[in-house]
Amino acid sequence: MAHRNSVVHVAVGVVRDAAGRILIAQRAQHAHQGGLWEFPGGKLEPGEPVLQALVRELREEVGIRVAAAEPLIKIHHDYGDRRVLLDVWNVNSFSGEARPCEGQAMQWVNAGQLSDFAFPAANLPIIAAARLPAYYAILEGPDAESIMTNCQRIIDNGVKLLQFRAKALAASDKQNVLEQVLQQCRQHAVEVLVNADLDLDISQAQGLHLSSRALLRLDRRPAGMRWVAASCHNAVELQHALAIGADFAVLAPVMPTASHPDTPPLGWQRFSELLESANLPVFALGGLGRQDLALAQTAGAQGIAGISAFLV
Ligand SMILES: Nc1nc2c([nH]c(=O)n2[C@@H]2O[C@H](COP(=O)(O)OP(=O)(O)OP(=O)(O)O)[C@@H](O)[C@H]2O)c(=O)[nH]1
Ligand SMILES: [Mg+2]
Fold first, then answer.
1. Cβ of 71 less than 6 Å from ligand 1
2. 107, 126, 145 — which closes off a domain?
3. Ligand 1 test: best mutation among 10, 37, 109, 123, most atoms within 8 Å of CB?
4. By residue range, what is the domain housing residue 111?
5. 157 vs 137, 163, 221, 281, 311, CA distance in Å?
6. Which residue's C-alpha comes closest to atom 15 of ligand 1?
7. Which of 18, 75, 294, 301 is an S-S bond match for 284, by CB 3.0 to 4.6 Å?
8. Is 0.90 surpassed by the pTM of this model?
9. Is residue 53 located within the same domain as residue 202?
10. Does the CB atom of residue 32 touch ligand 1 within 6 A?
11. 291, 235: one domain
12. DSSP 8-state assignment for residue 168
């Protein structure tokens, strides 16, 4: 039994097969959070590095040999009877065929099906992280034509999640341009979140993106949206995003940017410290490109967000 005040450090794998399906298993009835579904993994042994624990647990529980893993998210959770740090890794590269080595129920499911299963409370942000891609494009442009060109470029770059921001557009054009963007994105299975400050009809979009000002005015998550995201710059805003039940946040600026020359950048060190207690997926924004993805993931990020990052 873990000491009440100590934190149980757990290595957890989001294991994906070639078709993109994710491996889940059912916890034994007698175990902590028994009967609920989980991502395979387990407790670190004393002094054991987390990646080593991940490899060992996935071999012991589901019989696979992990070839490579990338950090996905870290979650701190207090169950009352136990505090855990879930150290979650993406495992896209492994050998062997997964099998339930401990007699547990086991299934491969699509990311979209994860919410149909009962998981422990700490898993909510892990499921969001597993469903989210590594890139989040912010769509801007001085006029309708450049917005549509930028939209196509973002799609051509393989991005699957986009924020319609378009602040510079004439108010009378915004709804019309949004509808064109939604149509173009639908054809390529790209999900669109609309910036809440634009005050548009978003019934055909997949989500709402809150500016930090809009975030701080809310005390609960807007209803009826598949995705709710928030722009954050500090710990208070990140905590508020978590408190209202946002699915993910964007934290900026990590590096100096031309668009906000007077805002001091956070740098990776501070960015990483802020993520320690964020408990939700966070994209890194500000002066970054797609080539910064590995760096961002190592700092704890879900991935990279950007305006110009996806136009080249
Ligand atoms: N593996 C795993 N553990 C999770 C998840 N979510 C979650 O809250 N936990 C918690 O993290 C802890 C991990 O414990 P575990 O039971 O997997 O540990 P283990 O494999 O070393 O098991 P053992 O105690 O039987 O040796 C438990 O308190 C469990 O409730 C999850 O998705 N996967
Ligand atoms: Mg386990």
1. no
2. 126
3. 10
4. 7-126
5. 10, 15, 31, 22, 8
6. 42
7. 301
8. yes
9. no
10. yes
11. yes
12. T
Are 120 and 178 in the same domain?
no
Three-state secondary structure call for residue 169: coil
Domain limit, last residue, from 77, 93, 126: 126
Asked if 40 contacts 11 with a C-beta cutoff of 8 angstroms, the reply is: no
Separation of alpha carbons 286 and 284, rounded Å = 7
Is there an atom of ligand 1 within 6 Å of 26 CB?
A: no
Side-chain-side CA neighbours of 187 within 13 Å: the count stands at 9
- Ligand 1 centroid–CA 236 distance in Å is 30
Reference 232, options 214, 218, 219; nearest CA is 214
pLDDT in 10s for each residue of the chain, 312 residues? 445 569 999 999 999 999 999 999 999 999 999 999 999 999 999 999 999 999 999 999 999 999 999 999 999 999 999 999 999 999 999 999 999 999 999 999 999 999 999 999 999 999 999 999 999 999 999 999 999 999 999 999 999 999 999 999 999 999 999 999 999 999 999 999 999 999 999 999 999 999 999 999 999 999 999 999 999 999 999 999 999 999 999 999 999 988 778 889 999 999 999 999 999 999 999 999 999 999 999 999 999 999 999 999
Q: Is residue 275 part of a domain?
A: yes
Q: Which ligand is nearest to the CA of 10?
A: 1
47 in the same domain as 170: no
Query: Is 75 in the same domain as 198?
Result: no
Chain length of the chain = 312
Would you list which residues are annotated within the binding site for Mg(2+)? Answer: 41, 61
Residue nearest to atom 14 of ligand 1 (CA): 42
> Are 113 and 210 within one domain?
no
Q: Has residue 2 been placed in a domain?
A: no
